Amino acid sequence: MAEFDYGEVVSALRGAGCVFAEEEAEILIESASSPAELTPLLERRIAGEPLEYIVGWVLFCGRRVTVEPGVFVPRRRTEFLVECAAALRPSVLLDLCCGSGAVGLSVGGVTELHAADIDDASVDCARRNLDAMGATVHRGDLFDALPPELHGRFDAVVVNAPYVPTSDIELMPREARDYEPHTALDGGADGAGIHRRVAAGAGQWLHSGGHLLIETSAALSDSTLDAVLEAGFTGQVRESEMFDAVVVIGSTGGS
Q1: What is the pTM of this model?
Q2: What distance in Å separates the CA atoms of residue 192 and residue 186, rounded to the nearest whole number?
Q3: What's phi and psi for 122, nearest 5 deg?
């Protein structure tokens, strides 16, 4: 690290508007074997490309999760979704709209894990992350991705589906707006469109006493909760100040 001018890297990142310039400088320097190798990495970050795409991983729930261009980058707030799911101790789990597979990867104690996404790049990335767990990753639109023999099998379904209202995407930070796939961001006119589809279809995949957990936002929590209740679940809203996160949990009947 002595070869690198840490201060110059921090200054360049700060000048580009990177809020966590010191942290990012350390990660970029760690990822480069020489100053010559660092230069193009730094240029990519200054241009606005997500740091996670540049280095090939994101730190999520204390571990490095592979993430690649074209795949949604897991946010720290989604660690609250993991926390809520882990508290239910599911043995058979579905990570729906899985992206990189980070959520399913991070819920401990799971004996059978399935994940699903409509996007080819996400499915390939999730398979790389989940292969060591013996998980099965399915490709398709929401529950259409799953084989019928999985009906009624799941203890829990965890969902980090897109929930940004279409008109708000242009207001997002440029690394999300310009680099992440809009299919991983766009939740429809009010942001809750996919949540309604998920809630409407989830019941047949959960066994009695199973749970549906959907990450949402404070602004959308009522809409997401309404979708869960209208689908026949009992529902509750969980919030975390630490993670600045909101999760709606729907529960089926049974114990």
Answers
A1: 0.94
A2: 9
A3: -65, -40
